[in-house]
Structure formats: structure tokens, C-alpha cells
Amino acid sequence: MLAEIITIGDEILIGQIVDTNSAFISQQLNAIGVKVYQITSIQDDETHILSALEDAKKRVDLVLVTGGLGPTKDDITKQTFCKFLGDTLVENQQVLSNIKHIFRTYIKREPLLSNLVQAMVPATATILNNIHGTAPGMWMEKENTVFVSMPGVPYEMKHLLTQEVLPRVIKKYKRPYIYHKTLLTYGKGESEIQEQIKDWEEALPTAIKLAYLPSLGRVRLRLSSTGPNEKKLKEAVEQQMDLLYALLKDIAVGYEDDTNIQERIASLLDLKKESLSLAESCTGGAIAREITAVPGASAYFKGSVVPYETHQKVSVLGVDETLIQKHTVVSAQVAQAMATQCAKLFGTHYALATTGIAGPTKGDGEDEVGTVYIAIASPSGVFSEKFSFGNLRERVIKKATNKAFEMLLKEILKN
Amino acid sequence: MLAEIITIGDEILIGQIVDTNSAFISQQLNAIGVKVYQITSIQDDETHILSALEDAKKRVDLVLVTGGLGPTKDDITKQTFCKFLGDTLVENQQVLSNIKHIFRTYIKREPLLSNLVQAMVPATATILNNIHGTAPGMWMEKENTVFVSMPGVPYEMKHLLTQEVLPRVIKKYKRPYIYHKTLLTYGKGESEIQEQIKDWEEALPTAIKLAYLPSLGRVRLRLSSTGPNEKKLKEAVEQQMDLLYALLKDIAVGYEDDTNIQERIASLLDLKKESLSLAESCTGGAIAREITAVPGASAYFKGSVVPYETHQKVSVLGVDETLIQKHTVVSAQVAQAMATQCAKLFGTHYALATTGIAGPTKGDGEDEVGTVYIAIASPSGVFSEKFSFGNLRERVIKKATNKAFEMLLKEILKN
After folding, report:
1. Is the pLDDT of residue B250 over 80?
2. What are the backbone dihedrals phi and psi of residue A136, each rounded to the nearest 5 degrees, phi first?
3. In a designed cystine with A89, which of A120, B6, B131, B413 is the match (CB 3.0 to 4.6 A)?
4. What pLDDT shows up at residue B364?
5. DSSP strand E in A204-356: where?
6. pLDDT, position A393
7. Percent of chain B clearing pLDDT 90 (strictly above)
8. Which residues have a Cβ under 8 Å from the Cβ of A10 and sit 6 or more positions away?
9. CATH number of the domain that A344 lies in?
10. What is the pLDDT of residue B17?
11. Is B289 an interface residue toward A (CB < 8 Å)?
12. Which residue spans within B187-326 are E strands per DSSP?
């Protein structure tokens, strides 16, 4: 059972937007045992769309298409599907009433003619109701391949995929099981890890595939396998994962099947009824942004300060000014004082602080661009670590954010 | 002159990572007049890689391939290129010394054998030096098509592309000019805009293409055209853009050719020598994160507070507690008090505050999930607006962030 994803729209090919839809669709399909063979991004161009549909039809059972369903002239997906299927556009009453409902409820004006035209769909298509927007999803078949067309707007696509498309896929196709498990490690590079697990990797059964997924200070190791027997599959992968975990226990911080590191921190703090605050200088809100992205963050996250200007570390956080004069603002002493003061200001069990030079230009002190101190104040005291994260601003901020989560998770697990 | 991008790696096809490389490569190619015809993501699988290379070769002049160049076993791009080109792997001294240099300087240990094996490259490949990593870029030719292989790690790829690949492309190929200009609008949907510009759009010369790019509260309108005469091309697009701007001047906030809205705010504040601080409750650091992503932010951004817990709005920001009791924490009064107090706390010209219910659960008050107040304090006073951003947490945060930037830019332009 194979699928492909086709995204339609010049905006991806000229790099104006990043295609996040395909990752979401792939994850969801994988979870129900459908393997994604290829993802293809093509233009809003009839000839190109037709040849992409034709090529995908030869390779796979299911083709998910996003984009090109808007009310404006540059959107030609529906007309092109008609050509591909030998079909014609007809007005669909269900879609028409959804469009009117959305305008009445959310947009609070009468729909324009171009909005009403969105109710024209290929006559043989099964309509998938889009509760978040005016462009309907469509389920179409040609010979033995199913084609699903969805709008490219991420939240509209997500709802259609999970509520309308996946249940139909589950019902229609017999699928093998796919099982992945991903180990999250921090602190060593991929070649060092490979060296450490060499003997194990060589003995790994061929049915189980290992992938190294390195990114900015962390490496994820993914084991995956496919087969007809869910129980056996899972047991085989879990058994190998246990061996792998034992080999890497110095750098492993947990699994990444369902949760990421922010979610692990969230659930631990929630469980222990402990709280967290942040004082972010060089990371400028990046850590708070990740923490508050997790629903329910208000249960343990009390707040944060971004004392971006040196003076604010004194006036807002209450760091002792002589410490800054003596050690410079980018120092272990100031990082630790920021964490301690932050815990006091917000009244939290844990406080995490960052101070450093994200670049591109150097600060006032001696330190190079990329120097970052991360400090944690906890019930058992305060400590900090110094890092050199290179000279690319975005990368310094991301690496510092990842490292901060790593340190925080370890510290919470310790207490 | 057409190009394609092929990304290799199972992690994209199982949705474990989002492909951001392709957007960057497409932007860069477009800027030098190379049109990207298709982007294809495929597996780390020899048969699949070979057929993708063969298909792309039939369609385009230049194929940029990323991924599959790591030191571990699952990386098979180089061996597969050898098969495709009828070539063999040989040790390259330049790459070998770069690997040793990187280990000596940054990793501070001896390279392992698997790292040294990264110096094996196809004999006929021209080596592109990767100063940020151990996997080299490679420029290869088969008949009339050029194939470039780059690592998938974004900052390594970016440096190789801009410093090594693009200069060679510019030298080798005669390219037409491509000119894009994008108008950024806030506050109306795409069908409303289409209605407003209908007559103009119908009269638009066929050589100029219009695209509507809607996303969370804003619509970007892109005009693009391709041709041999740069001056004429630019004039034709600019002339139409002037007409379009005039038709949409009620919702246009500027162009997006080189700068985004954060960068416009940054350059205006920098120019006027004015400063900014933030008090973010429901946006949880998202606005600060975007502001500090712009290099040089410390010139105008003094700092921010995320008073996530209600109590912190009183104790950290100094909002009057009786205001919260009287109007609830999600109210115009509290949003305005947060902005006013924030400007005082950080001593800034402008302060922006958000308070609302990002969801998924409701707050203590009467308001629905998605209710957000955004307030701005400026030299001319304080004001706020109320919004309903729907019931999806990530979307509420993003819409509030976009809206905050829109309000802030308008306010700065007014003063």
C-alpha cells in the first residue's frame, strides 16, 4: 500500500512558502501503515498537473493532492481534475450551503460570486466537508487509484485529512503495519554514535532499518520496520531499541514517538506540581515560545523576562550591577544571578537563564560570537554551563534553545 | 533554463522533518533567473534515486540534490551517483584535509574512520568545499545536465549553494531575467481583494502573472514576469504594481521583495532612534522571538516580559489588581495597562501587549477560546483592539503575532 503527495502551487517552487503540509500528511499516513513513496511539488499549470497525476497513478494506490482550490483565477486544480477524469464541474448543494454558512458565521458578509463558484466540483467526486473553509475536499477514483484533493491552507487540510480522508483510507485498504521508534540523544555527533553502536548495528536484522537524524546538538536514531503482524513487529523493534538504549544510556534522553522534549518537561513538571520561569537574553523569547506552544503550559509555566538590554538585567530582574561590571554581561556569574533572580521574581521551583552573543556582531566583552551561558536555578542550587555555538545567528539561538531543554530535562529528572 | 530539486531521505517521507532546504534553494535560483520546475522528495533507496535522477535529466538543465551524504550506513547518495555516472569513488586530498581541519578546530578530537571515508568522492566530480561540515559538495555532469550534490544540513547547504554553486551556475548558463514583486496586505480575504481589483486583473498583460498567497489574516499578492530584457521586465511589473497598490491602499502595508514586516519595523525604529518593549501573555514569547531573529535587534528592542500567570501581571508588570478583578484578565483595560506598565518598566517609546485565550481550554472569564486583546502604548497614548482568532492554539498564537506586527507598523508609521 503506497501513497504519494502532490503539492500544487508556484509559491512553493519560487520558495515563497515552506511546504509544511507534506510532513503532516506523511506522519499521519505512516501512523496507519501507509508508506509515502514520493512527494512532488509542481506548478499551477495544466500540463504539469496532468503529467504528475499520470506518473503517480502508475506508481501508487493513493494520491493526496493539496493546493490550487482557492476562489481566484490562478487556482486550476478542479478544472484539471475534470480533464484527467473525463468529468465536468457541477454545482454541489452541500458545498454551497457550507460556503453560505461560513460567510454568515465567521466572515459576517454576503459571499461574492467567486466564493459561490467554489461550490462547483467534478460530478463524480465524493465531497469531503471542510468545516474551516470554503474549498471542499474531494475523493475521486480513476481505475485502481484514489485521488484526494484538499486545500493547501494547513488547518483546513489537517482537519479534512484526519476527519474525512484517513477514516475512508482505513476502511478501503488492507494495510501492513509500520512501526517506528525514535531515540533522542544529546551531546555526541553521528559518527561517534555510529562507532559506539557498531557491533549492534552490524547484527541488526535486515527487516529493521536504522536512520541517523542529526540536527544542531542532537541526534535522533530511528528504528523502523514493516510487516503483517503488528505484535511481532513491535516486539522486534522494541527489543532492538532496548539494546540500543543500553548502549547509549550516557547520551539518551528519551523516546520521541509521541512526545518531544518540551512535552516531556511539561508532563514531568505537571506531575510533580513544580513550576518554571525563564530569563532569556540571547535566545530572545525562543524558549518561552516553545514552552507555551504546548497546551496546558499555564499549569507550570509562570512567566519569563527577556532583559535584552544589559541595563534591564539590573532594573527588571534585579541582577547586582557590580557583578556585570566585574565579569561582563556574558559570564557564568551573570547567568547564574539571572536564574536565581528569575526564580525569586516569579516564585518558581526552576528558573532557566541564557546570556550570550547571538551575533552577527560581537558584544562589549572579550567573548566571540556564539558564546552562550545557560544557567539553571533549582531547589538544589544554581549552576551554569558555557557553550560555543558558532557564528550563525539563527543557529546560535536554536542550538541554545535545544541545549537549554536538554539541561532542564536532566535537572528535573535529577531532583 | 530550468532546474529541479531532489531531496533524499526517509525522514522527509515519514514526516519527521519539514523540508526547509527546498524553499531556500528555490528563492536563490529564482533570484538569478533560474526557474524551478519541480521539487521531488524520495527515499534513501538506490532504485528510487536512479529513476528520479533519470526523470529529472529528461526535463531540466540543472538538478540540485540534497541529503544522503552523512558518514553513516544509511547514506548512499555518493555510491548511487557513481552508478548513475558510470564512475568510481576515489579519495580526495582536499576533502580529507578539510575533514581533519574541522575535527581539529571545532570537534577537538581525532576523526574516526567513518569520518575519513567522507573524503571518498566520484572521480569525475568537481569538489565544492564545505567549510561548515565534513561532507563535500559535488558538481557532476552527464551529457547536457549538471547534477549538484549537497549535504542536507541546512547551514552547510546554504553556504555551499550561495558561495560555490550559484557562481558556477551564473558563469555556465545564459539565463532570462525573472522579476517578482510582492505586495503585503492585511485585513481582507482573497475573494474580497479579487473583487476590489477585478477590472485591473482582467486588463493585466498575459506576460505578467498574479498570484494570491493567503495566510492567517494577511494576503500577499505576487506579480511575476520572465524575459530577456531586465529593464523592460522590471518596468512592466513595477507599472502594474503601482496600479495595484493604488487600488489596495486601504489594506497594503508594503512590499515583500527583500524585507518582511519585522525587518520594516526594525529599520523604522532604528532610523527614528526609538525603542520597543513587549508584554506577551497569550503569545508566550512568539513576538519577541520574531523580533530578536532580526540581527541588530538590540539597537531598539529593550526587552520583554511574559507574565503568563495572572498574578505576574501584577507582581512583575505592576498592573493594578483591581483592574483585573473588575474587567477580568482578558480585557481591553488589562491589555492597555500591560502596555502602559511595560513602556514604563523598560523605558521605551513603544510597548506592545497581548492578553487572550490561546486554548484549547477556556480561561476563568466569559470569553471564548481565541479571544485576544492587543494593546499598543506609544508617545501619543494607548489603545487596544479585540480579536477572535478561532479555536486552534497554534493558529491563535500565529494570527495574534501577525496582527501585532501589523498594528505596530501602522502605529510607528503614524507617529
Report:
1. yes
2. -75, 155
3. A120
4. 62
5. 209-215, 218-227, 252-255, 276-280, 301-306, 350-356
6. 87
7. 65
8. A43, A44, A74, B209, B211, B224
9. 3.90.950.20
10. 83
11. yes
12. 209-215, 218-227, 252-255, 276-280, 301-306
Q: Do B220 and B346 fall within a single domain?
A: no
Nearest to B288 among A19, A189, A284 (CB): A284
C-alpha cell at B389: 482568532
Q: Are residues A40 and A54 in the same domain?
A: yes
Give contacts of A 87-106 with B, CB under 8 A: none
Contact B277, B297 (CB under 8 A): no
Q: What is the pLDDT of residue B259?
A: 58
ipTM over 0.85: no
Find the CATH number of the domain harbouring A242. 3.30.70.2860
- Counting Cβ atoms within 10 Å, is residue A205 exposed (0-12), middle (13-18) or buried (19+)? exposed
Q: pLDDT tens, A131-160? A: 988 999 999 999 999 999 999 988 899 999
**Can you give the pLDDT at residue B365?**
65
pLDDT-wise least confident of A240-244, A403-407, B301-305: A403-407
Distance CA B165, CA B154 (A): 15
pLDDT attached to residue B37: 96
Provide mean pLDDT across the span A42-68.
Answer: 95
Beta-strand pair B276-280/B350-356: parallel
Range of the domain at A381: 261-414
Amino acid B118: pLDDT: 93
Q: Is the pLDDT of residue B373 over 80?
A: yes
C-alpha dihedral sign at A83, A84, A87, A93:
negative
Give me the amino acid identity at A126: T
Give the domain-ending residue among B255, B287, B305: B255
d(CA B42, CA B154): 18
Same domain, A394 and A359: yes
* Nearest residue, CB atoms, B180 vs list A14, A214, A289: A14
Give me the sheet containing A371-378, strands edge to edge.
A381-388, A371-378, A350-356, A276-280, A301-306, B301-306, B276-280, B350-356, B371-378, B381-388
Substitution target in A76, A282, A298, A394 with the highest count of B β-carbons within 10 Å is: A298
pLDDT greater than 80 at residue A128: yes
DSSP, res B344: H
At A329, give phi and psi (nearest 5°).
-70, -25
Nearest chain B residue (CA) to A287: B285
Maximum CA extent, chain A: 79
Mean pLDDT over residues A17-23, rounded? 91
What is the torsion angle, in degrees rounded to the nearest 10, for the CA atoms of residue B19, residue B23, residue B26 and residue B31? Answer: -160
All three cell numbers of A184:
533522542
Which pLDDT score, from 0 to 100, does residue B148 have? 98
